[in-house]
Amino acid sequence: xxxxxxxxxxxxxxxxxxxxxxxxxxxxxxxxxxxxxxxxxxxxxxxxxxxxxxxxxxxxxxxxxxxxxxxxxxxxxxxxxxxxxxxxxxxxxxxxxxxxxxxxxxxxxxxxxxxxxxxxxxxxxxxxxxxxxxxxxxxxxxxxxxxxxxxxxxxxxxxxxxxxxxxxxxxxxxxxxxxxxxxxxxxxxxxxxxxxxxxxxxxxxxxxxxxxxxxxxxxxxxxxxxxxxxxxxxxxxxxxxxxxxxxxxxxxxxxxxxxxx
Length: 261
Prior knowledge:
Layout (H helix, E strand, L loop, with lengths): L5 E6 L2 E6 L10 H16 L5 E6 L4 E3 L4 H5 L24 E5 L2 E3 L1 H8 L2 E5 L3 E3 L13 H8 L2 H10 L3 E2 H7 L4 E3 L5 H13 L3 H13 L6 H7 L4 H7 L3 H10 L10
Helix pairs in contact: 3-4, 4-5, 8-10
């Protein structure tokens, strides 16, 4: 299915979202952000979709961030409630999302990638938060997430100097999970990673993601440990058919048939 600013397709349990504004390096303006918000709203609601991948059209850019020409023309640039790309402020999505970074990921594009759970990047891709050079700040989560995900001094250098980070360095720093040799190989690599996620119960994956995110909230370990089963995704796992199916399949020496329910 093609929208005005993105293309959406499904492969089994996987949703693939491709930003289709290659003429502006897949930069996003308000209409594109609203369209992506609607797409990820649908993904969150659909019980048959378990993993999402977001990528960019072409081989030059994943997303070059905010469409500055659109902004400079005086257009409305209000962010949707779920943030840039419909993802950066979406804090209640426990389904995993993979960024397939096929080219540059700058500003809001880097912020989208950082908001995803996993990042696969082409070796020629690079990342950066160039906002200081245009009198802005990366307030769609980039400053917060990068400082969480890599060592503080490294984050400070990247943020304050606004330099670009090659994909291989991103892997060394820990915010890139895997490298693909070419832009064309990025999506297949992301799909292979998604297949690995699908080998587990989607209910268990969501519970694991929620607990991992809760661990970043700052509560002490004893408090988090005591509250584990009170969180929504964890409660859903323990009430699910998947929780019964997993041990049964193990005992019967067969692959489990997950239902996500």
